[in-house]
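Table S2 (text version). Query chain:
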Amino acid sequence: MTTLKKAAHVLVTGGAGYIGSVLCRQLLDHGYRVTVLDNFMYRQNSLLDCCPEALFQVVRGDCRDERVVTELLRNTDIVIPLAALVGAPLCNRDRIGAYTINFEAVQLLTKLSSKDQQIIFPVTNSGYGIGQPGVSCTEESPLRPISLYGETKVKAERVVLDRGNAITLRLATVFGASPRMRMDLLVNDFVWRAVHDRAVTVFEGHCKRNYIHIRDVVKAFLHAIDHFETMKDRAYNVGLEDANLSKLELCQEIQRMAPGFVFSEAPIGEDPDKRDYIVSNQRILSTGFRPDWSLEWGIQELIKCYTIVNGTGYGNV
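Corresponding C-alpha cell output:
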C-alpha cells in the first residue's frame, strides 16, 4: 500500500474531460486534494459540482505551458496527465496539436516533476494495432500503433516509464455516461444510434476490441494510487475479460437490450480506425483489481442517459 495519506495532492491535467469529470469527483470523495488544469476547449461545465469543495482548485490553462505546469507541480504528490487529443479522427484533424499535447506535454511533465512525485498515466491499448487472431495481447506484446493517436500515446508511455516512479494504464475502449459526455466512442455511439435511429451500418464488423466502463477506469486509477509501490514502473491493460468483442458482436449485445435496433455490415467502405485485437487484463487482475461494471449494465445506463441527452455537441469531433 502507498504511504501517502488521504490528503495527498493530485494534479489532473485535462481534468474537465470525459474521464476527468468522473475521476475528480471520486478523488475528492476519497479525501484527496485535487487541482485541475484544463483549457475547457469544449466549453464544458462538467466540474461545477466540485467547486464547493475546499480541497478542489481549478486552473484554466494549457498543459504545454512550462510556467503554468512548473507552478502547479509545487506541493503535488501525484500527477495524472489526462490532457490529450483523444481518438484517431481528432488527431488526424490536428496533427501538430496531437503531437504537442499527447507527447510533448507529457515529456515536459516528466522533466519538470520531482522523481518523488508519482505519475499515473492513461494510454490506449490501441497501441497493439492489429493482433494475431485468437492470441491475446499482453503488456509484453509488441506495440504497433496504426494511428497518429496510438503513436503519440505509445511514445509518451515510453517516456513516462523510462522516467520511473510511474504506472501506465492501457485503457480498453471506454464506454458509459459522464458529465462531459462523449457520444463518439464506439459503444456510446452505437447505443445512441440504437435509441434514436434504431439502426446502424457497421464498417469492418469483424474487427475486435476490448471494452471498459468509465467508472471502472476511475476505479483503476484509485487502485493504482492505493497499490502504487507494488504496481509501479509497469504498464497494465485495463478492460473487461469477457468483452473482447467484434463490432457485430457488440451490436448483438446492444440489440438484446434495445430489441427494435437493427444493424447491418456495409459491403464496401472502411473504418479509418482499423485496430483489431483481443486483450488479456490478467496483470492488473493479479493485483486485486476487479471491474464492477459489465457491458450489459453500461448499455442499460446509456439507454437512460440518452433519454436525458438529446442533441449534438457531445464528442471530440
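Notes on Table S2: The domain at 9-174+211-239 is CATH 3.40.50.720 (Rossmann fold). The longest helix spans residues 95-112.
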